[in-house]
From TrEMBL:
Keywords: Cell membrane, Membrane, Transmembrane, Transmembrane helix, Transport. It comes from the Bacteria. This is MFS transporter. It comes from Streptomyces chartreusis. It is a multi-pass membrane protein. The chain crosses the membrane at residues 21-47, 53-74, 86-104, 110-128, 149-167, 173-191, 221-244, 256-274, 286-319, 347-367, 374-393. Residues 20-395 form the Major facilitator superfamily (MFS) profile domain. GO terms for molecular function: transmembrane transporter activity. GO terms for cellular component: plasma membrane. InterPro entries: MFS (IPR011701), MFS_dom (IPR020846), MFS_trans_sf (IPR036259), MFS_Transporters (IPR050171).
Length: 431
């Protein structure tokens, strides 16, 4: 592709998004650049502290449990206190708890602080997604969520490489660097991001109070949450089932690292052009295709006998991941009332948090008792079930492209009460 065409494509991808979005995007990137704990926690506990693999697994589970607990609580805070206060509390708590984790030595203390770190770090997600929905126009949301997803993966790819070198020198330095960069995110939020929570009108006409019960009774949305859980179970196998299966097959950790590195490389290289491809296309069909790519991408792993073939299967399900992440997040926003976005995003985040808890148990049980081939076959079945579910949901909800007339009408009721965010290049407009 000529350089001029690349520049034009990049300019069109980033154009028209409000200034506040880019500060939020920068905060996400900085936060992921400083990621250390989640990447090297197991190595830190087993190699540096000398604990057993079982204990390291327990700590990882407690870290995930913290995320499950905070998903709903953070969603409620996002609606009641506001997006900005929730982000400030989450980022500040993460910075402090990560720093403390680097200094504690007693196994009970480490486990307890790891739980707090998991809860604090996950608490920012509902607020980030709700704020992004507040400040970005409906027709630009898929593009915005995709760019944010790209920043997450770019930051993670860089931090994973840097963390390896830092760990060679000092694990404590890694904890302190992550704490410092998370604190920088909190400062960016405090200085640059105004509150974006929609203000209720004086009459309150048409604005029903949104509680957790409202979310649970929303059948359409809970169907999305359930399908999200199924897809998340499949995608989690890239970090839990795949390394176990490759190890059992005689491959080294370096072989797994080489295969899984394709995931981050592809996302960083292709997420923006993929976004341009899907931005104006039918969201329901994209979700169906992404589920099938995820399920059968992992399903093909049953036939892998070399690092090259493993890498090829990673390419297949990574494409599904790139299609699914921004499209599904955009659908969640469309189904969320403006004054309940925090709770809705919290419930959506919960689906991924619970999947992160169940996936390791599922993969370990299936591999131990039935063999890895059954796990990959099960992934294909789950991916197919999710695709069928999305197909049914598409017919029920009418999940079409965000710029179609039907979608504008669906979104209209959730957007009419959104107040413009001061200082944006393009204020949040009603549909």
């Amino acid at each position: 592709m000529p350089l001029a065409a690349v520049r034009r494509a990049t300019r069109e991808t980033v154009a028209g998004l409000p200034r506040e979005f880019w500060w939020l995007w920068t905060s996400t990137l900085v936060n992921r650049l400083g990621a250390f704990v989640a990447t090297f926690m197991a190595l830190y506990l087993t190699l540096d502290r000398g604990y057993s693999a079982s204990y390291a697994g327990l700590v990882a589970s407690l870290h995930g449990l913290g995320g499950v607990v905070s998903s709903i609580g953070a969603g409620v805070m996002t609606d009641r206190l506001g997006r900005r206060p929730t982000l400030l509390v989450a980022q500040a708590s993460t910075a402090v708890s990560v720093a403390v984790l680097g200094f504690v030595h007693h196994p009970v203390a480490i486990a307890a602080v790891a739980f707090v770190v998991g809860a604090a770090s996950n608490a920012s997600r509902p607020a980030v997604q709700a704020m992004m929905a507040d400040i970005v126009r409906p027709e630009d949301r898929v593009r915005a969520f995709s760019l944010n997803y790209w920043a997450i993966n770019l930051g993670f790819a860089v931090s994973s490489m840097a963390a390896g070198f830092i760990a060679e020198v000092s694990y404590l330095a890694g904890f302190l660097i992550e704490a410092g960069m998370t604190a920088v995110c909190a400062v960016v939020i405090f200085v640059k991001l105004p509150e974006s929570r929609p203000e209720k009108s004086d009459t309150g006409k048409g604005e029903e109070e949104v509680g957790l019960g409202t979310v649970l009774r929303d059948g359409r949305f809970m169907a999305v949450v359930g399908l999200s859980f199924l897809v998340a179970l499949v995608f989690q196998q890239g970090s839990v089932g795949l390394p176990i299966a490759m190890g059992d097959a005689g491959f080294s950790p370096a072989d797994y690292g080489l295969a899984i590195a394709i995931n981050g490389i592809l996302i960083v290289a292709l997420q923006i052009p993929v976004t341009r491809f899907i931005e104006r296309r039918d969201a329901g069909r994209i979700l169906i295709v992404s589920s099938l790519l995820a399920g059968y991408g992992f399903g093909l792993t049953a036939f892998a006998g070399s690092v090259g073939v493993f890498a090829l299967t990673v390419c297949v399900w990574t494409l599904g991941e790139m299609l699914n992440a921004p499209t599904q997040t955009g659908l969640v926003v469309r189904l969320s009332p403006a004054h309940g976005r925090g709770r809705y995003q919290g419930m959506y985040t919960l689906s991924w948090s619970v999947a992160a808890l169940i996936a390791p148990l599922m993969s370990g049980f299936v591999i131990d008792h039935l063999g890895a081939e059954w796990l990959w076959g099960l992934c294909a079945v789950v991916g197919t079930a999710a695709a069928i579910g999305y197909g049914a949901l598409t017919r029920y909800v009418g999940a079409e492209s965000p710029v179609t007339k039907e979608t504008v009408e669906i979104t209209k009721s959730a957007e009419t009460d959104v107040s413009p965010v001061p200082g944006t290049e393009a204020d949040v407009r009603t549909a």
